[in-house]
Amino acid sequence: MARFSLLSAILLHLVVVSMQQGDDETLDIRQRFGSSSVSMINDQIQNEFNAMYLYESMASYFGRPSVGLPGFKKFLKKAANKERERAHKLIDYLNMRGGHVRLKPITPPSKFEWFSALDAAETALGAEKNITQELYRLRDRADMESDPHLVDFIESEFLTEQVTSIRDLRELIARLNKAGSGLGELILDKELN
Predict the structure, then answer these.
(1) Which domain CATH number covers 173?
(2) For site-directed labelling of 168, which of 26, 106, 160, 176 has its Cα 20 to 30 A away?
């Protein structure tokens, strides 16, 4: 009987100790992976999902029969899928490094209709610039925390793609400005389709 209560006490102690450690059962793989980086990655996941939501909203707008720009719909749908993939890439990274994903609410876009394709492209460019700025902040935080793995991950998996996305949107905006609304917008839409 005494042996049983000693064994019970030891098991109870182990349970209490493991509960006190929180849900970070993978602390042994969280080397050089600070809690501020984990928090910033969670924020970036939200940023990526917010951008996805924005692009989905734009794609649905341009897909309306009354708007009739299927090329822009396709372009924006592809952008939405990229943002979703990037969010999932960050989720997988957090899991791999022993962090915990804390999904936050997706913020709806500030508007659901656009004056023109140019208006939508300029809105998308602003969103991409904001995402890039946040990625630079995350990269700098990782560098300050001496986390070369996170620095490399952000640089190789995200920043080059961001620079390319911004360049592509700037080129689209320049072409839309030259083409003008109406027929020029329709011709560009055909090229995107």
Answers:
(1) 1.20.1260.10
(2) 106
